[in-house]
Amino acid sequence: MNFKFHISLVALILFTGLVTAQVKFEAKVSKTKLGVNERLRIDFEMNKDGDNFVPPSFRDFDVVGGPNTSVSNSWLNGKRSYTKTYSYFLAPKKRGKFTIKQATIEIEGEIYKTFPVTITVTAAVDKPNGNSDASDIASQNIHLVAEVSKSNPYLNEAITVVYKLYVSPETGVSNWREKDNPRYNDFWSQNIEIKGLNIQKGLYKGEDYRYVILRKTVLYPQKTGKLKLEPLVLDITVEVPTGRADIFGRPIMTKVPKTVTAGSRTINVKPLPESGKPSDFKGAVGDFTFSITTTKNQLNATESLQAKIEVSGEGNLKLFELPKLTVPSSLEVYEPEHKESVRTNLSGMQGTISDTYTIVPQFKGKYPIPSISFSYFDLNTESYKRITSDELVVDVLEGPTATIATTDSSEPPTSKQPVRPNSNTFAFIKTSANWINKQSTPFFNSNTFWSLLLLPFLAIPFAIFVRRKKEERDADVQGNKIRKADKLARRYLSEAKKNLNDKALFYVALEKALHNYLKAKLHIETSDFNKEKIESLLSKRNVESTIITDFLSILESCELARYTPIPHDTIKSDYDKAAKTISTLDKQIR
């Protein structure tokens, strides 16, 4: 049975599979017969994207290049054409007849396999591979790799993705651009700034290469299960040698356009264990310290003090809420001011978050602030830990004394009087009351009596309903963040109005108001702010372009105010413009 018959049979079977299943996955080789000193290229090509690609063993060959992943996505006459290819470059170990076995891939939940390919390796040839194609040389000598620090993290555990471009010493890259940026669905992400592309030396598949780090990203998974990382795709101009030299003996290079991708990766995110999970756990994962401090312990009534709840350490600091402060009702407490001093590097978030409460006592006395506990999941020990603060006491030295219904314990005890027994113990209790019914209708068994008796029982379902709604609201971390940001926006806008005569304080407060407004309405963090992203998100929410322009111009004014003098009329104009723009955005954002 000759080789052409094999090819015809494979084509017929693939065509039949395409018609029935609309999925094609096949192995293609550059040649089926080669010398022992030549190289073989094998492409595993599919027409739909898949996961869990498993190549054959290549036990009779050395892998000298690959896997290189390329993606082609085009439209022709209204029809989409998609091709994804995994390419390998192989060097035979010896002469003989060898079979490259099946490769497998999972596409839409189904497992697909290629047909085995038979390769004949002969004695060495005079011209290995003939005149090598420049595109093949580029594919063998350039590789884009996504290095993931951990493929099976816990929920809210930091992982890093580092994208490296490897280039062989014989090959060069004249320019590159990102064709498709990865979207990290179901992850909180933060790109780490790279200052300059430093060329470094390293090994790829055991061979010497040069490489540059193109991108570093920190990810915190927000869902459990298998989460997919989309690939980074680059358009590159590769310089490969032609095998010829100029009159000075320098190699002549040719430029080849190439599209390379790091390939998609699957991250298997583990849920946090249920065993031992504290009741007050709010999603903190990492290694933290916890403290509660006050600015003073003694003061007079109507004076104020600040109580700070603070968490420091390394972990998902921006992704959980701090425990709430509870104080006696005689102390007036204001809405806390939230502060974040967090930096993000390759190991994740590090720093401090805090809520500062302003407390004003109204009466003289000593008031305990109950202890508060903070729970987190420790990744080092893979267990939950709880930190409990000490109880604090606020001593109010001077001020009015609160009215207390109980007898003052400082009064001297009265002398005991003898008690005379009375056989009619309950004779003084009235069974009717004129204050309810002037016609002296007995209160017992009256409509009012039964209404007052049943009222507490009717109130129980309502109390349960209110409590459940409160628990749902407390559990809505994202919603609470949005509501808090909305309050802060209005607070800072009010603060900006108070500082119209102070340029520095005015523009700081105005910028904070705009940022917190965006947090509340667009659900983005301050670290993600840039004009292009804000403009894109507002456009998607059907906001008019003129309003978007006004909003961005106010942000620019806040930035310019740091470096340039601003007249008072402009400050007043910026405040009026900000208030009007925010009001209009509220009506237009969908």
What is this structure, in a nutshell?
Helix content is 25%, strand content 38%. The chain is α+β, with helices and mostly antiparallel strands and 590 residues long. It is elongated and about 115 Å long.
Could you please describe the fold and organization of this structure?
The chain has 590 residues and is an alpha+beta fold. It folds into 4 domains: 1-130, Immunoglobulins (Immunoglobulin-like, Sandwich), CATH 2.60.40; 132-271, Immunoglobulin-like (Sandwich), CATH 2.60.40; 288-396, Immunoglobulin-like; 477-588, Four Helix Bundle (Hemerythrin (Met), subunit A). The chain has helices at residues 3-21, 134-141, 447-475, 477-498, 503-522, 531-540, 545-560, 568-588; strands at residues 25-29, 33-35, 40-46, 51-54, 61-76, 79-92, 96-100, 104-107, 110-113, 117-122, 142-148, 159-167, 172-180, 187-192, 200-204, 207-221, 225-229, 233-245, 251-261, 265-269, 286-294, 298-299, 305-315, 331-333, 337-345, 348-361, 365-369, 373-378, 383-388, 392-396. Strands 11, 12, 14, 15 and 16 form a 5-stranded antiparallel beta sheet that branches. Strands 21, 23, 24, 25 and 26 form a 5-stranded antiparallel beta sheet that branches. A 4-stranded antiparallel beta sheet has the order 1-3-6-5. The longest helix is centred in the last third of the chain and has 29 residues, at 447-475. The radius of gyration is 36 Å and the shape is elongated. The protein starts with a helix and ends with a helix. This is BatD family protein. The chain crosses the membrane at residues 448-466. Keywords: Membrane, Signal, Transmembrane, Transmembrane helix. InterPro entries: BatD.
